[in-house]
Inverse folding.
């Protein structure tokens, strides 16, 4: 396929090529697979060093599955993922340990991602433990430093607290400290702020942005919220039923969406101004599941502007409509 | 004008083993026929407790300390439970949070709504009731043949619609919608909010929306009330509150949200976290987090006072709008 060309391989921390994940539907112990759910289908993108790359879409579009494949929590059906030019499918055993130092994940729900029986110190120092980094004294120092960086101060006061003694915002900060303690180069953040209250959420978002600058990490930021993505991300890819339908600079995609789905998605976001009356989003029907999808454009059944070509041809490839702005639509002039 | 709902100086606590949680404190507001009121605030600020108080569905450990709730000129807490039961659902209905789980999985959706009608209007025959459910289904946009399906056969958006249909079943004069679209994707959220507003316009019923999302509240409310730590800190016409927020918390809340509107701007953070309502701070409950707090704020509880037509705020030093954009003017920290 016409791959969005990464500028130079060495400038990218992550390169994803033709990534695909199919799940079996209806398979049982003695039952053959009934159908296949195309959760992620032929997805390609790259994340530059120091970049925050946003993956945006509605529930079930495959954004979380993509994120999990990048940290090797889910095995792809096909396709390649390179981190630092290294094919991660080949990593196993001792290499895995080293891989987990370089690539970390922050999960959505801080109420479930922290072990309730571990203290804050144990939680954050575990990655150091596992990787035999430093002695106890050095670890203490490192954990204290991380805690103060994520805004939990004074750190020593929190060393021996358990997750249930922390508020939601504090828990997510601990989860972030745990992910950052090994100095990863790349972080997959799966809706890390969606469970938090507004006044807390902004603080965590600012923290993520600040840490990204200070530590020079790259993020894959997964979210359903376009406004959050706009605030945090350099580039945004919009996913629909397992496919990237549009990919561009964050401001570019918000101000000038080209794909009919991105347009509908953006026009459905409520605005904090009672004086504005938004137009009705131009989209038909509801989301389905990509179970044994026909080869044509995934968005065809809901597309308000679909033509015959959309029904009769394969799903359109992602093509560069203007410099750095990629869109997968038969009807967008390129 | 005669108010449909009048809440005056309402204070409600929850008794727990650790002490009293001062969940709702001295809340006063009223709602006219056909109006929509949006209550906005973060989790634990008491907005759902206010709703449950109006529905008389408070748990056993709740204790009403003072105040009245008057619906249609009747004080609901001076009625016997059997009397109020006749009003509940016929006069005031509620769309509960997490509507996904509000339906009984072992009955068809149609039969559950039919049952609501038969229960509250014994004079209606089963046939008539079923006929009415058919009409309700078309009002909320569910195909009629779905009446005999079970909840698990519905999508999230359809379940939400079914729960709205159930609230509409007995033509109440007031519907309380507690986070009606929080679990839904934006495109579905947009559709459902539009439908609810359409229904309000057609039937002339009043709506009380409860949400943590200021944008949702901005779009559907005539009047906006902002709650913080059990207090109604500001209430007024939506346009006025959004254009000229007078309470520092309202201002912070509105600027803490990223938006896709206009130019990308920096987000305001509200320092600290909401207080434990077992031991709320003395004076103004917001003062420990307020940039503009003075000595008085830490000692004297501010009373609500009018700052414009129908616009009241509980703050010693309400913000003033600056003449030319930028930060509002408040009393600087001494």
């Amino acid at each position: 396929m016409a791959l969005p060309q990464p500028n130079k391989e060495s400038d990218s921390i992550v390169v994803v090529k033709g990534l695909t994940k199919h799940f079996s539907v209806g398979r049982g112990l003695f039952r053959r697979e009934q159908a296949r759910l195309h959760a992620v289908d032929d997805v390609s993108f790259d994340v530059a060093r120091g970049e925050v790359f946003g993956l945006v879409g509605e529930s079930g579009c495959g954004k979380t599955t993509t994120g999990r494949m990048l940290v090797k929590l889910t095995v792809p059906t096909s396709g390649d993922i390179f981190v630092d030019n290294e094919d991660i499918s080949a990593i196993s055993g001792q290499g895995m340990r080293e891989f987990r130092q370089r690539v970390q994940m922050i999960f959505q729900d801080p109420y479930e991602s922290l072990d309730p029986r571990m203290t804050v110190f144990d939680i954050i120092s575990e990655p150091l433990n596992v990787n035999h980094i430093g002695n106890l004294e050095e670890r203490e120092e490192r954990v204290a430093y991380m805690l103060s960086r994520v805004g939990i101060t004074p750190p020593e006061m929190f060393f021996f607290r358990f997750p249930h003694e922390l508020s939601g915002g504090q828990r997510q900060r601990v989860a972030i400290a745990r992910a950052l303690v090994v100095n990863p180069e790349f972080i997959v953040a799966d809706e890390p702020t969606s469970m938090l209250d507004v006044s807390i959420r902004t603080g965590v978002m600012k923290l993520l942005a600040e840490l990204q600058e200070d530590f020079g990490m790259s993020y894959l930021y997964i979210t359903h919220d376009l406004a959050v993505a706009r605030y945090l991300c350099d580039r945004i890819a919009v996913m629909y039923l397992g496919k990237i339908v549009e990919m561009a600079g964050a401001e570019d995609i918000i101000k000038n969406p080209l794909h009919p789905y991105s347009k509908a998605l953006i026009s459905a976001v409520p605005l904090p101004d009672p004086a504005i009356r938004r137009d009705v989003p131009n989209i038909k029907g509801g989301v389905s599941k990509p179970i044994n999808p026909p080869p044509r454009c995934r968005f065809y059944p809901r597309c308000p502007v679909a033509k015959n070509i959309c029904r009769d041809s394969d799903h359109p490839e992602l093509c560069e409509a203007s410099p750095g702005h990629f869109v997968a639509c038969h009807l967008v002039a390129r | 004008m005669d108010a449909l709902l009048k809440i005056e100086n309402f204070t409600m606590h929850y008794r727990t083993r650790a002490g009293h949680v001062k969940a709702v404190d001295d809340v006063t507001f009223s709602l006219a026929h056909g109006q929509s009121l949006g209550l906005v605030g973060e989790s634990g600020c008491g907005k759902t407790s206010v709703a449950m108080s109006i529905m008389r569905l408070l748990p056993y450990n709740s204790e009403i300390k003072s105040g009245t709730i008057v619906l249609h000129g009747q004080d609901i807490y001076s009625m016997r439970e059997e009397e109020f039961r006749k009003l509940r659902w016929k006069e005031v209905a509620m769309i509960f949070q997490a509507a996904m789980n509000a339906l009984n999985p072992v009955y068809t959706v149609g039969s559950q709504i039919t049952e609501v009608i038969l229960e509250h209007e014994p004079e209606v025959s089963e046939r008539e009731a079923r006929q009415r459910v058919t009409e309700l289904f078309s009002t909320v946009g569910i195909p009629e043949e779905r009446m005999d399906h079970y909840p698990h056969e519905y999508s999230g958006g359809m379940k939400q619609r079914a729960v709205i249909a159930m609230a509409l079943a007995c033509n109440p004069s007031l519907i309380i919608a507690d986070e009606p679209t929080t679990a839904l994707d934006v495109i579905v959220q947009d559709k459902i909010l539009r439908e609810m507003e359409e229904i309000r316009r057609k039937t002339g019923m009043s709506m009380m929306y409860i949400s943590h999302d200021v944008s949702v509240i901005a779009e559907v409310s005539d009047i906006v009330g902002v709650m913080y730590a059990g207090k109604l800190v500001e209430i007024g016409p939506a346009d006025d509150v959004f254009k000229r927020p007078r309470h520092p918390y309202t201002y912070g809340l509105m600027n803490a949200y990223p938006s896709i509107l206009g130019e990308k701007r920096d987000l305001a953070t509200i320092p600290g976290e909401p207080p434990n309502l077992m031991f709320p701070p003395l004076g103004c409950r917001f003062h420990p987090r307020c940039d503009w707090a003075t000595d008085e704020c830490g000692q004297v509880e501010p009373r609500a006072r009018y700052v414009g037509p129908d616009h009241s705020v509980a703050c010693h030093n309400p913000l003033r709008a600056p003449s030319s954009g930028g930060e509002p003017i408040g009393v600087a920290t001494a």
Notes: Chain A has a mean pLDDT of 89.
